[in-house]
Design goal:
Elements: E1 8-12, E2 25-32, H1 46-60, E3 68-72, H2 76-91, E4 98-108, E5 112-115, E6 118-121, H3 122-130, E7 136-144, E8 173-177, E9 187-188, E10 193-194, H4 195-207, E11 215-217, H5 218-235, E12 244-247, E13 256-259, E14 266-269, E15 276-281, E16 287-292, E17 299-302, E18 306-312, E19 319-325, E20 330-332, E21 339-340, H6 343-349, E22 358-369, E23 374-386, E24 389-403, E25 407-426, E26 429-448, H7 451-456, E27 462-482, E28 486-497, E29 508-520
Parallel strand pairs: 2-3, 2-4, 4-7, 14-20
Antiparallel strand pairs: 1-7, 1-8, 4-5, 5-6, 8-12, 9-10, 11-13, 14-17, 15-16, 15-18, 18-19, 19-21, 22-23, 22-29, 23-24, 24-25, 25-26, 26-27, 27-28, 28-29
Helix pairs in contact: 1-4, 4-5
Length: 521
């Protein structure tokens, strides 16, 4: 169960400042702690929440990577040292040039965050944040209290009271709460993180850009996270989760947290009235982002370069589309590109749904066997994908030679194989391991090295053998994706064959390694 404790604090003095921002700076301290007080179960997604926040703020929020401080399972001393370092960085600039953000994901209660057996009160933490000389200070704590049970998917449990403070400072403080007083907060394994964090990060990536100007303000990000958190909790069959906010901030202009128009890669969605989109990294079952389209302007979502699957709608009206983004690319999705996919299939498999199940590839390789010291092979291969598995069969032809002091050996072969492979998605790469059966027709020619002398004596100089050689085969493939549906790969294979050749050799091993290319369709 996720419970956000005093989810955010922003304090600013923006309205009256007239000094020029000659060298603006944004500083981020992001900490996660998977362990809490005795009796609290270890968290599964605290570190993931931190990575999502760091990713969006460094990509779109003008936070330089050199000004990001990441803490994993810190002690109080380590957290204080990180805040001291942030204060030193901020002190090298004029305060009105500095924005400071502290993000924490871990265990907590209504008054404290838990760092394993240690605890920090929210009062002390807020004071440490205020000590950083900055025009805008933001404190986000994503803390949870787990009871000794946890089920897959969205989990709920009796919530502890998360009450608004009795009094609020008058110096421009904003408190954000992930839920109202007495309500539980939610965590989702499907999202691999806290529900409120998921929607806040989605908002910062563009889902919250209500007017389509390529900028996501604080108000826009909160509005989106509020509505989507409430909507998801209402569909979960448990208690509702109402995020809450108290704004006491003087601002001369809207506070822009991220800019999608400066993203390294951007996907645009077609205009439509309230179409719901879910975005997955291809091969992943975790939802990466969510947004709703607008009938008034294109909706945009910033993503790192990579390969993705986007789902439109749910139930019988659901559809999916695979696409790839390269660095610097702005990709516009068209409505006619989506293909109908059963909603229950997308709901259970997410980005692991296979929209292009057919594969066709070619490969060339070199190898050796018990009968040849060097061989060259070329093959054509077809595979059919389902989920994380593939059934492949191929045709391969090869030539090989081996020279000894007594004879020169030449081999020619043509054969086929059928293999079942287990596939793993590794970002821009893919790994496949398989087992199957192979059967080759082998032609072997043995010519004596002293053929001229033996021929003069009237003896045969050449022997030939032909036979079928079946046996088991193992394969391994490391694939690098080029675009959405084409790839290059390194492949290795080994087999033990049993030739049925009268007077010929017994069992023989073969091994080869090579390169290949192919496409999905």
């Amino acid at each position: 169960m996720r419970a956000w404790v005093g989810a955010a604090v922003l304090s600013a003095s923006l309205a009256t400042s007239g000094s020029a921002r000659a060298d603006p700076i944004r500083i981020l301290v992001a900490a996660s702690h998977s362990r809490g007080a005795p009796g609290e179960l270890p968290l599964l997604h605290a570190a993931t929440d931190v990575e999502h926040v760091r990713g969006v703020l460094t990509e779109l929020g003008d936070v330089p990577r050199d000004d990001v401080i990441i803490l994993v399972d810190p002690t109080i001393a380590a957290l204080n040292a990180a805040l001291d370092r942030a204060r030193a960085l901020a002190a090298s600039h004029a305060p009105d040039e500095v924005t400071f953000l502290l993000y924490f994901s871990g265990h907590g209660d209504r008054d404290r965050i838990h760092l394993g057996p240690e605890a920090v009160t929210m009062t002390d933490l807020t004071a440490r944040v205020r000590a950083v000389p900055a025009a805008l200070r933001m404190l986000v704590t994503d803390a949870c209290r787990n009871y000794p049970s946890r089920t897959k998917g969205i989990t709920t449990e009796p919530g502890f009271a998360i009450a608004n403070p009795g009094t609020h400072p008058a110096d421009g403080v904003i408190w954000l709460f992930s839920s109202a007083e007495g309500e539980p907060a939610l965590e989702s394994d499907e999202l691999q993180g806290a529900v409120f964090t998921h929607y806040w990060v989605s908002a910062l990536r563009g889902a919250g850009d209500a007017n389509g100007d390529g900028r996501v303000t604080l108000a826009e990000s909160y509005d989106f996270a509020y509505s989507q958190t409430l909507l998801r909790s209402s569909r979960g069959g448990g208690l509702l989760q109402h995020p809450a906010a108290v704004f006491d901030l003087h601002e001369a202009a809207p506070i822009v947290l991220t800019k999608t128009n400066g993203a390294s890669a951007l996907v645009r969605f077609p205009k439509a009235a309230d179409a719901h989109f879910l975005i997955y990294a291809l091969g992943s079952r975790a939802v990466l982002g969510e947004l709703w389209s607008s009938a008034e302007h294109d909706a945009a979502f910033a993503l790192p370069a990579g390969r993705y699957l986007v789902q439109r709608g749910t139930g019988v009206a659901s559809a999916g589309l695979e696409f790839s983004l390269s660095a610097g690319e702005a990709r516009t999705l068209r409505a006619e590109e989506f293909r109908t996919i059963p909603g229950e299939q997308l709901a259970t498999k997410g980005g692991a749904v296979v929209l292009r199940p057919n594969e066709l590839g070619v490969e060339v390789s070199v190898g050796a066997s018990r009968l040849s010291s060097f061989g060259e092979l070329a093959g054509l291969r077809y595979a059919y994908r389902w989920d994380d598995w593939a059934f492949a069969f191929g045709v391969t032809g090869g030539l090989g030679t081996q020279n000894t002091s007594a004879e020169n050996v030449k081999l020619a072969s043509i054969g086929g194989d059928a293999v079942v492979e287990r596939r793993w998605a590794l970002g821009a790469f893919g790994l496949g391991l398989g087992l199957g059966a192979e059967a080759d027709v082998i032609w072997q020619t043995l010519e004596r090295t002293d053929a001229a002398r033996v021929a003069a004596a009237g003896y045969p100089t050449t022997q030939r053998y032909t036979g079928l050689a079946p046996g088991p085969v193992a394969v391994a493939r490391l694939r690098a994706w080029i675009g959405l549906s084409t790839w290059l790969e390194l492949a290795a294979r080994g087999a033990v064959l049993f030739p049925e050749m009268g007077g010929g050799p017994g069992a023989l091993w073969t091994a080869s390694t090579g390169v290949g290319a192919g496409l999905q369709f």
